[in-house]
Every structure is written in structure tokens, then in C-alpha cells.
């Protein structure tokens, strides 16, 4: 781990070279991702999604403006994803124009002093891939590896960190939801994840990691896991460990040979002797209905480190859905205090990327606003919030006031 260059007495210092940025996902900000499974799901007859993504933030055309703002605010890193459905709109048919588009984004980030972290898969797949059976089809792993190899012109130079798959445990959870015929987590907690999908995603990650290393051995490869921060009530320690393993830890264990692992969390899940316990009625809740709990990321980092062993950690998502930006600053203050404490305790944490750079499409609705930057849905005008200036300034000072 690199050493801090700031005066510790002034506050919590972050290490020299620490990644300091914000994250996005292609489907959530680009708009008109018409060849993806999610676009089809948004528009199919009887869709249960409240609203479609539509133009989203029009970032497919306005990515330069997004990067300009992040760089001007003081951020040094930007995590964005490549849309598989654009790169390979039909089986084996790769779009040179789309590959060039994403390469321009990499170059544009570098020109602005932003280090690009590229995610190869962030929830959406081409519609044709889904119709073949998705991740559990016989040739799914080979098809994903073929796509990863096709991204060589995009990630081959100028990129250091590559995320193969974002939150694979949430992908397996989505399959479990469909089998239950529900879009909402049951009151009793998260259902058991689909095991065939879990196994397939782990194989896909390992195969993709090898494919990325073939593109360039210098590329640092990992994947990001959704941490639910399972906290055991007295007497529920064994149940909590058993509950967590198939829903989270099995994916963390799969990263033991990776160059880094992405840690993502937003709130906690308390486990009692009879299973998950709802948050108290008087608990503050965010626009997603989650308990306001900024300390979650600290617990997630410590848990991930305990499971994965000697693998560097990067916070690849962390944030809050709120219409009150002062609560967003408070949330980030608490979250970053927990990150700083983990650093001081010796955890090898290499970066912090907030979710999200923009108010965007949150998988069915625009109501939950996670963004540091507001986006007008009609004009697409970008307006940085006070939290964006506050968080960006920390990128310049690298010191969180105590």
C-alpha cells in the first residue's frame, strides 16, 4: 500500500495515488440502448417496470461534458462501462463504430486527467444473448470471452483497471426473483441465489480475466461485489455466516487470484435468530427505502478483506439516493470516515469511487437520485450539486477533516 503524503494531524489522509472518482453504468446514462435485454424488458407488454430508460442522460453523446465536469470538480478517476449490446448487436457481428466510440471515451478521459476504470459488463446483455438462455446457456462463457477479446482496441492501452462483471450476486438474485415471480425482495430477506447462474458467472469471470490478461498482462483485473453488510444479532452468528455465504461470500472467494476486488455497499442487513430483521420504524430511510447507514462501507471493506485475503480493495460504488444534498454530504462524510479508519488499521484500500456521477436511470425509475450532478430530463443540462464540489475538493486535498 502506498504511503500518505499529507499531515495526519490535519485530518484523515488518503494515500498518494489513491483512486478518487465517480462511477456510472452505460445503460443507466447513455440512452436508447435498444439492442439490450433490459430495453426489451422495459418495453414488453405487461412490463412491471415503472418507466423505461428512454434517452437516459444522453451521455452517449454528452460524455465529454460529463468528463469535463468531473475533472473540473477535482476527481482523478472515472469508472464507466462498455455496452455489450452496442459492441456486438448480433451474434459475432462486432461494430467497429461502437468500438471506436468507447475508445474515444478512454482517450477523452486521459486527455482530461481522469484515469479510466472500464467495466465490461454492468447488468445488461445483448437481447440475442438473453434469448439463447443467458448465462446458463451451453456456450455463454465462450460468447462472453469472445466479446471481452473484442474490446482489445478499447482497453489495450491507457486503461489500468478493468472490471469484468459488476455485482454478479445481483445478477443471480435477479434470476431468483424471476423464478419467484417478484421484482421486490421478500419480507423475509433476500432469497437464495440461483446456483447455476452463480456457477456460470464465476466461470465467466475467470475466463474473462484470462482474456483480459491476453490483451495486456499489465491490465489489473477484478470484479465488484454487492455487499449487504450482514450484521449478526446476539446468538445469530452462525446463521449470519450461513446466510451470507451463497449470497455474497462465494463471489468474494472467487476473487482470491484477482489483482483487486471492488467493494460496493449502501446499507446494512441485520440478521436475527429467525433471519433478516427489518430496520426500525423510526430509522431514517433513503429514496430507495434503505436504512440510512453510512458506516456500511467500512463493514463491507473489513468483511471482504477477511474473506478474500491479500487482494487490494477498491470501493467501486458507494452513495445515497436522496433529494436532500446536505444528507448526501453527511452520508459521504460518515462513509469516508469509515474508509479512513480501515486504512489506518492497515487494510489495503486503493481507491474510492462514488455512486453516482449523475442522477440516472435506476433500473426501472428515475426517482432515486444518487447523483453528484443533477440532469434536467428535458434539456439534459448538467448541474453539479454542492456534494460534488465537496467530494471533488477532497480529491485535491486527499484529507478528510476529522
UniProtKB/TrEMBL annotation:
User: Keyword annotations for this protein?
Assistant: Glycosidase, Hydrolase
> What are the boundaries of the signal sequence?
none
- Please name the Pfam families in this protein's record: Glyco_hydro_1
What does the record list as coiled-coil region(s)? none
Q: What is its EC number?
A: 3.2.1.-
Domain of life, source organism: Bacteria
The reply to whether DNA repair figures as a keyword in the UniProt entry is no
Say if the entry is tagged with keyword 4Fe-4S. Answer: no
GO terms for MF: hydrolase activity, acting on glycosyl bonds
Q: Which family does it belong to?
A: Belongs to the glycosyl hydrolase 1 family.
* Protein's UniProt name: Glycoside hydrolase family 1 protein
Amino acid at each position: 500500500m502506498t504511503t500518505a503524503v499529507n499531515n495526519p494531524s490535519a485530518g484523515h489522509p488518503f494515500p498518494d495515488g489513491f483512486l478518487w472518482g465517480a462511477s456510472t453504468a452505460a445503460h443507466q446514462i447513455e440512452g436508447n440502448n435498444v439492442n439490450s435485454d433490459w430495453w426489451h424488458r422495459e418495453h414488453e407488454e405487461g412490463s412491471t417496470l415503472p418507466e423505461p430508460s428512454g434517452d437516459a442522460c444522453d451521455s452517449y453523446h454528452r460524455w465529454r461534458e460529463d468528463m469535463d465536469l468531473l475533472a473540473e470538480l477535482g476527481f482523478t478517476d472515472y469508472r464507466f462501462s462498455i455496452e455489450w449490446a452496442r459492441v456486438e448487436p448480433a451474434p459475432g457481428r462486432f461494430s467497429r463504430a461502437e468500438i471506436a466510440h468507447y475508445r474515444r471515451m478512454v482517450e477523452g478521459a486521459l486527455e482530461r486527467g481522469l484515469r479510466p476504470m472500464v467495466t465490461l459488463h454492468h447488468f445488461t446483455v445483448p437481447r440475442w444473448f438473453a434469448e439463447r438462455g443467458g448465462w446458463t446457456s451451453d456456450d455463454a462463457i465462450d460468447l462472453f470471452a469472445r466479446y471481452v477479446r473484442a474490446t482489445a482496441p478499447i482497453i489495450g492501452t491507457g486503461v489500468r483497471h478493468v472490471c469484468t462483471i459488476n455485482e454478479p450476486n445481483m445478477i443471480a438474485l435477479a434470476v431468483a426473483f424471476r423464478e419467484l415471480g417478484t421484482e421486490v425482495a421478500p419480507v423475509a430477506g433476500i432469497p437464495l441465489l440461483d446456483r447455476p447462474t452463480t456457477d456460470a458467472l464465476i466461470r465467466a469471470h475467470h475466463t474473462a480475466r484470462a482474456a483480459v490478461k491476453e490483451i495486456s498482462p499489465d491490465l489489473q483485473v477484478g470484479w465488484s461485489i454487492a455487499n449487504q453488510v450482514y450484521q449478526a444479532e446476539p446468538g445469530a452468528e452462525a446463521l449470519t455466516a450461513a446466510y451470507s455465504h451463497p449470497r455474497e461470500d462465494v463471489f468474494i472467494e472467487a476473487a482470491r487470484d484477482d489483482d483487486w476486488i471492488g467493494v460496493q455497499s449502501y446499507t446494512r442487513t441485520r440478521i436475527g435468530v429467525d433471519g433478516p430483521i427489518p430496520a426500525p420504524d423510526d430509522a431514517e430511510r433513503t429514496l430507495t427505502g434503505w436504512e440510512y447507514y453510512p458506516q456500511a462501507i467500512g463493514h463491507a471493506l473489513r468483511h471482504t478483506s477477511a474473506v478474500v485475503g491479500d487482494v487490494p480493495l477498491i470501493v467501486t460504488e458507494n452513495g445515497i439516493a436522496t433529494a436532500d444534498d446536505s444528507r448526501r454530504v453527511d452520508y459521504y462524510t460518515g462513509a469516508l470516515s469509515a474508509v479512513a479508519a480501515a486504512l489506518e488499521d492497515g487494510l489495503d484500500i486503493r481507491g474510492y469511487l462514488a455512486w453516482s456521477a449523475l442522477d440516472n436511470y435506476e433500473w426501472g425509475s428515475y426517482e432515486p437520485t444518487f447523483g453528484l450532478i443533477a440532469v434536467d430530463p428535458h434539456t439534459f443540462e448538467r448541474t453539479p450539486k454542492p456534494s460534488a464540489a465537496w467530494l471533488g475538493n477532497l480529491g485535491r486535498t486527499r484529507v478528510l477533516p476529522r
